[in-house]
Every structure is written in structure tokens, then in C-alpha cells.
Design goal:
By secondary structure, this protein is an alpha/beta fold. The chain has helices spanning 15-25, 50-57, 73-90, 108-112, 136-144, 180-205; strands at residues 4-10, 38-45, 62-64, 95-98, 117-121, 149-156, 166-173. The protein contains six helices and seven strands; from the N terminus they run βαβαβαβαβαββα. Helix 1 (15-25) crosses helix 6 and helix 5 (136-144) packs across helix 6. The model has no long low-confidence stretch (mean pLDDT 96). It binds glycinamide ribonucleotide.
Length: 208
């Protein structure tokens, strides 16, 4: 069976992308009789990012698609989403992974890739998700709310923000005196396992 082409979208450091690259190299996404394998076929960032260097070091084609700041926010999101859809179509992507991608996808890409876009979010969704909830803000909100546990969620992307069906979650305790950075670090370790497991789950679901 043919490998599924995976498109990974990033905005930052790219440790989740790195986890996926390492997993692919370790044979984690290899296909079998029952399902196809997967290969990271391209990476797109919406800003200059360390993640692009990681892609390049791994020999994966990497693109920077910066939103045009002259546009209104809604139009900007739509235009960026359409450009990403164009690349996804050209490379024949069958799975899109948002691995720390901080723009919001809108419009045709959501319909065209229904059930085939996944996102990792650093909280136990539906808690602490939605527009504006990313990075340190999430962890600060979790600590301020006095939560005893947090973690990460990988879910299918739908037309909402952080609202689609959950594929899996991983939990960590929130410790007394935790700083947002300390909590983020603990969650990051779990994210790397979660995103890899979720891609493996999707490859099984997308069997060709
Ligand atoms: C991760 O913690 C991811 O969950 C978060 O961005 C970070 C990216 O880290 N995503 C969001 O907040 C999306 N709403 P990385 O660049 O090292 O993979």
C-alpha cells in the first residue's frame, strides 16, 4: 500500500515536528498489510520559525506562507488557509497535522480535508481552548483556575476553534507552586508522545 503524504503545519520551535520526524525515522509510521504507512512530505510555517530548520535538516521540503498583514483578520485567515490548501492539493496530502500551528484555518480546507486535519493543544480540551488560547496563556489560565491536572489533547479540526472530536489526551499533574513554564515543559514531553500516537491512529483510520 502507498504511504499517506502527511503535511505538517508549524509556527514555532517545532519540538512536536521533531517528535514526528524521529518517529517516522524509527519506523513508527511504517505500513502493513492492514493499513498504509505515512511520510512527512512537507512542512509549512506561517512565520519564520526554528521548526523550518528542523524540516530542512531532515530533508523535508519546507515553505513559509506568511499571512498578509494588510488584510482584515478574517480575510487574512481565509487567504492563508487557501494557500495552504493549494500546497496540500499539489503534494497530494492526505493528512494535515497542526503541530504548534498558531493561525486558524478557515474555509474550503476544512471541508476538503474533513476528518483529515488534526491539531495538538496544550490543555485537556474542552477546558482552556478557543481563540487566543495558545502557548503560555493556556498554562497561566490553568494555574490561576486552581486546576489539579492539565495535559494535552489531539483532536480532529472542524470549523470551530479547538472544538472537534478528541482522538486522545494525556494528563499531567499541576504541582504546588508550578510556573506556566514548568507546567508547559511537563506537558511538552507528553505532547511528543500524544502527537506521534495520534498520527499512528489516523494512519490506521485512513487505511487505503
Ligand atoms: C505546543 O505546546 C502546542 O501544543 C501549542 O504550541 C506548542 C508548540 O510547540 N499549540 C497551541 O497552543 C495551539 N493552540 P513546538 O513548536 O515545540 O511543537
Amino acid at each position: 500500500m502507498n504511504d499517506v503524504n502527511i503535511l505538517v503545519l508549524v509556527s514555532g520551535n517545532g519540538t512536536n515536528l521533531q517528535a514526528l520526524i524521529d518517529a517516522e525515522r524509527g519506523g513508527r509510521f511504517r505500513g502493513g498489510k492492514e493499513h498504509s504507512g505515512g511520510r512527512i512530505a512537507a512542512v509549512i510555517s506561517d512565520r519564520p520559525a526554528r521548526a523550518l530548520d528542523r524540516a530542512e535538516e531532515a530533508g523535508i521540503p519546507a515553505y513559509t506562507e506568511m499571512p498578509r498583514l494588510s488584510l482584515e483578520p478574517a480575510e487574512r485567515r481565509r487567504e492563508l488557509s487557501d494557500r495552504i490548501l493549494g500546497i496540500a492539493r499539489r503534494m497530494d496530502a492526505e493528512l494535515i497535522v497542526l503541530a504548534g500551528f498558531l493561525s486558524i484555518l478557515e474555509g474550503d480546507i476544512i471541508k476538503t480535508y474533513e476528518g483529515k486535519i488534526i491539531n495538538i493543544h496544550p490543555s485537556l480540551l474542552p477546558k482552556f481552548g478557543g481563540k487566543g488560547m495558545y502557548g503560555e496563556r493556556v498554562h497561566r489560565a490553568v494555574i490561576e483556575a486552581g486546576e489539579k491536572e492539565s495535559g494535552c489533547t489531539v483532536h480532529i479540526v472542524d470549523a470551530g476553534t479547538d472544538t472537534g472530536p478528541v482522538i486522545l489526551r494525556r494528563k499531567v499533574p499541576v504541582l504546588d507552586g508550578d510556573s506556566p513554564a514548568a507546567l508547559a515543559g511537563r506537558i511538552h514531553d507528553e505532547e511528543h508522545i500524544a502527537i506521534t500516537d495520534a498520527v499512528a491512529v489516523m494512519l490506521r483510520r485512513l487505511k487505503k
